[in-house]
Structures are given as C-alpha cells and as structure tokens.
C-alpha cells in the first residue's frame, strides 16, 4: 500500500528521526537515561508522530528494518554523547521494540552488531517491551534470554495496564518496570502505583514512573518509593542537539 511504499522511501532517504526524552532521578531530577522515540520527517506532511505510522510499520513487517535503524542510531548517538561528555552523558538509552522484532530470530545478533559497531557497552542499552510484545510467541523468550546474556537490560513498559503481567515477570526476568502513565495523576488509583513499586523492590528491579506532568505527581510518586521518573514536568522528547545543550548547560 501507499504508506508502506512511503515508509520504504523514508528509510532509504533518511527521513526518520529519533527524539530523546530524559529519564531523571527522584527527587534530584538528575539525568539518568533517555528514551529514544521515533518520528518521521515527511517531506510534505511535516513531523509525524509514531502513533501515526508505527502501527502501519508493524502490520507490513517494515518495523523490522525500521527498528534496526532505530537501534543502530540510538546506540551510535549514545556512544557519541559518552565520547563527548563522559559521566555527564545519559547513562542508558531505552529503545522500544515491537513483537515482530522480538519474533525475528536474527534480532539478538542485530543488537550485538549495533553495540559492536557503535562501541556502546551492552549495559548502556535498555530494550523496552510491553506485555503484548513479550507474549508474542515465535523465538521471543529465546531472544530475550540472548539479550540478557549480552548484558542488555530489559524494561517492562506500560506496566499495570495488562492482564498477565505477573505471569510474564515469572517467566521473563527484567531489569526495570515502567509504571504506565495512566497511574501518574493525583488523586489517582495509587493502589496500583504502590503495589508496582513494592513489586519492583521485592524483585530487585528498578521502578520508573512515566507521564509525570506536575510537581505534585513527582512528589507523590517519590513518596511512594519511585526513584526514577519521566514526563513533561521534567522534559519533553527532544532532538539529540537539545539533549547535548542540556548536558552542557549543567556542566
Ligand atoms: O510519541 P508517542 O506518544 O506518539 O508514541 C506512541 C508510541 O510509539 C509509544 O507507545 C512508543 O512506545 C511507540 N514508539 C516510539 N518510538 C518507537 C520505536 O522506535 N519503535 C517502536 N516499535 N515503537 C515506538
Ligand atoms: O508507550 P511509551 O511509554 O513508550 O510511550 C512514550 C510516549 O509517552 C512518548 O511518545 C511520549 O511523548 C509520551 N509522554 C512522555 N511523557 C509524557 C507525559 O508527561 N504525559 C503524556 N501524556 N505523555 C507523555
Ligand atoms: Mn516506552
Ligand atoms: Na509507557
């Protein structure tokens, strides 16, 4: 179809971009990592958000080459920040991956190649999966095991919204849980926010609160025990150059 053809052109002609949203520590607000988020700089339609093309890419299988580009670009950029800024650079980069990518038996080898070619140490890469990604079948479980063997970190995204997340945690060890942004509002359903941070502590994994938009939400989540957060209150997703400017402003 037309979108698929245009996406192939986008890949071939370099129209895809990555923006990076800071993840910060609570309560300090220090940069602890970034999440890479794809955009499409379309020649006629301007900057297109992932929600408007990632589903097409998934449906057509183009998410496999698109995701390969995302991974390589995120690793390259993060290695470059480390070369330039050392310890002031974001410690980790998180990359969202789709079920189709994890089902591809070549995925772990592609991750290994992206790390090797960029020089980024494996522990600086976090792969974000959702519940639906992780129960995708195929060689998914095997792939996740291979990624952990490489030393890549796994984060369970949008946590708290699914149906079988607890089963999943038992079967697939992760390094981080991201509380879905629907649980950030105060007053809100903080039974879930409380349970998730306690679960993370019991499992010995990091807990990140997402979608934090106000100082009240940040303080509330910190008081519950969240040690990291992400959201418009701290910073919006931004171009790589703006991340560099933010690092330089603090240095
Ligand atoms: O920026 P926005 O809120 O429109 O993002 C919508 C969704 O797109 C999010 O759930 C995010 O995880 C997903 N997304 C962003 N970048 C990527 C990417 O590089 N690959 C995949 N598979 N999903 C992405
Ligand atoms: O599904 P995932 O968690 O990967 O989605 C990340 C998306 O959430 C990004 O597209 C980002 O733009 C969006 N996002 C980040 N911070 C906030 C926030 O504080 N509020 C809202 N509503 N969306 C946010
Ligand atoms: Mn995510
Ligand atoms: Na999320």
UniProtKB/TrEMBL annotation:
Native organism: Spirilliplanes yamanashiensis
Protein name: Uncharacterized protein
Range within the parent protein: 649 to 899 of 907
Highest taxon in the source lineage: Bacteria
EAL domain segment(s): 1-251
Organism phylogeny: Bacteria, Bacillati, Actinomycetota, Actinomycetes, Micromonosporales
């Amino acid at each position: 179809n037309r979108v698929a053809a245009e996406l192939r052109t986008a890949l071939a002609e370099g129209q895809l971009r990555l923006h990076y949203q800071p993840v910060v520590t609570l309560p300090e607000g220090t940069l602890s990592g970034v999440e890479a988020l794809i955009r499409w700089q379309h020649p006629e339609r301007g900057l297109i958000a992932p929600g408007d093309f990632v589903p097409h890419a998934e449906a057509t299988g183009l998410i496999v080459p698109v995701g390969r580009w995302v991974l390589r670009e995120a690793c390259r950029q993060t290695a470059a920040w480390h070369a330039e800024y050392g310890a002031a650079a974001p410690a980790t980069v998180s990359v969202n991956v789709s079920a189709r990518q994890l089902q591809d038996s070549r995925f772990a080898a592609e991750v290994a190649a992206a790390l090797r070619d960029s020089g980024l140490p494996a522990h600086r890469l976090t792969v974000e999966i959702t519940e639906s990604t992780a129960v995708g079948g195929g060689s998914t479980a095997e792939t996740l095991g291979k990624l952990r063997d490489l030393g890549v970190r796994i984060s369970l995204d949008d946590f708290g919204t699914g149906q079988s997340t607890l089963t999943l945690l038992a079967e697939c060890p992760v390094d981080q849980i991201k509380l879905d942004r629907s649980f950030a509002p105060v007053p809100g359903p903080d039974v879930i926010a409380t349970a998730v941070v306690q679960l993370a502590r019991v499992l010995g994994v990091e807990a990140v609160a997402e979608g934090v938009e106000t100082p009240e939400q940040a303080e509330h989540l910190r008081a519950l025990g969240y040690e990291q957060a992400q959201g418009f209150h701290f910073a919006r997703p931004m171009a790589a150059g703006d991340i560099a400017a933010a690092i330089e402003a603090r240095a």
